[in-house]
Amino acid sequence: DAKTTQPTSMDCAEGRAANLPCNHSTISGNEYVYWYRQIHSQGPQYIIHGLKNNETNEMASLIITEDRKSSTLILPHATLRDTAVYYCIVTGGGADGLTFGKGTHLIIQP
Amino acid sequence: ETGVTQSPTHLIKTRGQQVTLRCSSQSGHNTVSWYQQALGQGPQFIFQYYREEENGRGNFPPRFSGLQFPNYSSELNVNALELDDSALYLCASSLAPGIHEQYFGPGTRLTVT
Questions:
Q1: Helix ranges (DSSP H) in chain A
Q2: Chain A closest-CA separation from residue B74 CA (Å)
Q3: Which residue of A has its CA nearest to B33?
């Protein structure tokens, strides 16, 4: 079972920041938080990951709370092409694959 | 640098048949993982191959098997197809086991009738 809890769906206006929350209260010290998204009819796309520090790349920012029990993915200026299902995944090392939950369906409104 | 490709795009098989799906990993990625995605669900991990050997497995029966080749290509084989095997099958490549920054292909849509 997925170790994360995400809202089923969210709306955001185009051009605004999209903030996607994720709860992972049972995360252990050596587990990372990964975010992927899946645009309709495509394979999942890696976005960003972090351990305990906030991270930023060209796609998004990841804010992890100090107790690491939750995180927020921020898309700073959402566009219509950001409409997708966003998956928050907690995982350690090893060959156990990624455990996807049902994710958050983010809909960007024009 | 080419991305991850999969073939075929779509496939229709009959219950009881066998199927082979193919994947070409990103160059330099020696680890490939396979996932099954049923309609409306997130992908479920089937297994992972590293240096041509199975390196980890999810909760899937032995009729799901795989091969990995030195040229960055791999296969997923499913025997004795069941109706519930109808799904999108995704492969993902990564630099090494335990590196969860994975690059996914577009998937193969399998329909079992």
A1: none
A2: 17
A3: A97
